[in-house]
Amino acid sequence: MKQISMDLEANSEDLEGAEGETEPHVYRVSEINAAIRELLEGEFSQLWVQGEISNFKAHTSGHFYFSLKDAAAQVNAVMFKGHNRQLKFKPQDGMEVLVRGKVTVYEPRGNYQIFCELMEPVGAGALQIAFDQLKKKLQAEGLFDAAKKRPIPRYPQHVALVTSPTGAAIRDMLNVLRRRFKGLRVTLVPALVQGEQAPTSLVSALAQANRLTDVDVIIIGRGGGSMEDLWAFNDESLARAIAGSRIPVISAVGHEVDFTIADFVADLRAPTPSAAAELVVRNSVELIETVATLRRRLTLAMANQIQQWRRQVDNLRRHLIDPQRRLRDLVQRCDELTERLTNAVSHRFDLWRGDWRRLTSLLDSLSPLKVVDRGYALVSLPDGRMVKSVAEVKAEEDLIVRVADGKIHTRVVGTERTAKGDKQ
């Protein structure tokens, strides 16, 4: 500011000395803007400015345009993509920030602005803000919904570990897995777990684990560290890769107090890598004891059921009649019914026989043959018609005369009618 004041004073003296000249020096607008730019950039080549962001705009070119303001004034600011791509958070209106940069002038319009090279939030750190922003975004999309969480297999046979092959986490997990389930198959898919390349490496390793056809569950994680150390597990691309995994994923990042975006989007969050290993497999001793307990319970249940069935059989046996005894009873009953039927039929025959004899005797008494037996004869024509009147025969007609011991064939010589009532 001292240099600027001196220059202005010098220019003032030049103007006073030139009062006698007929024509003053005329500046072009571009000259003025260039001179001001040179003065401002020379004086404010490096400065820190604190203010509240307003009118924020992320241009399609990747540059950020915004204003910084306080209670009394505001100033335009710009942050080109070469610098803003290093930010861990996304600036928003109303956010209080501290920027480092320099004052510059946009000569075509004569506007001065702060050219920002570095930006830090005031209060909460940049990483925390970035964490909160991404968490809110993914939660709004439903990536944390409990309904989307897949169950972890109770007895997995093959586990994939996505982590660093040289860290303490892999050693801890392998120790737990071998101790608790010696028959478990474990595949390590190595990945970077810290640094700028870590998110890409983790996404690639997760994709490789998903290409394994028989993996039952994936554990992704690393040991403890600062928020910066764990930042790879707060990457949006990794979060979406975990959500899109076809295999259930357990997130095991840091210590119990550490939370990452991967923890929220995974199917299950373990407080530590060792805890993840314990969650994914059950202790083989516990399994043996569980199987033994289930075997005892099954044996007892079967014994109780068999005993119940035996009681039911005994109860049914007491109510069941011996088939042979039943058959003998039926045979005896059949004999009784047969005898009764025989007696009934015999009695009926006796009744019918008496009636028959009576009717036969009556019929026999009425038979004309009885009359013949007493000395009388029956006269009939050759065609079998009985002759009851002399009018029924004529002379020279053959007749058959039936007597008690046979038949007499005779021929009519003549007929003689007697008076009615005459018994000769």
Overview of this protein structure:
Residues 1-10 have low confidence and may be disordered. 43% of the residues lie in helices and 20% in strands. The termini are far apart. The chain has helices spanning 2-17, 29-43, 81-84, 126-140, 168-180, 198-210, 236-243, 261-265, 273-280, 284-319, 323-366, 368-373, and strands at residues 47-58, 64-69, 74-79, 96-106, 111-121, 158-163, 185-190, 217-222, 249-253, 268-269, 378-380, 398-403, 406-411. Strands 1-2-3-5-4 form a five-stranded mixed beta barrel. A five-stranded parallel sheet has the order 7-6-8-9-10. The chain has three domains: 2-123, Nucleic acid-binding proteins (OB fold (Dihydrolipoamide Acetyltransferase, E2P)); 131-146 and 153-282, Rossmann fold, CATH 3.40.50.10550; 369-411, no CATH class. By secondary structure, it is α/β, with parallel strands linked by helices.
Structure summarized in a few sentences:
The chain is of the alpha/beta class.
